[in-house]
Amino acid sequence: GPMTLEVAYEAYPAAEAGAELWATVTVGEAHSLRGRLAAASTEALLRAGVLSAAMRGIAREVGSRVAAATA
Fold it and tell me: What's the DSSP call for residue 48?
């Protein structure tokens, strides 16, 4: 069957400015060949830095919202 991808984010105000963002990503087990290939490809992309790039964008957005809320 298809693979599952579970992502949880936690954002905290950073000590200096902006925000600190933590993410937990779980790539679920897939049972079909297509699902296993998709899961393996997703894991490779995450290891290659796709998650880091996405998290930098999210952290910038959260940081700007925190700054606006505290201004």
Answer: T
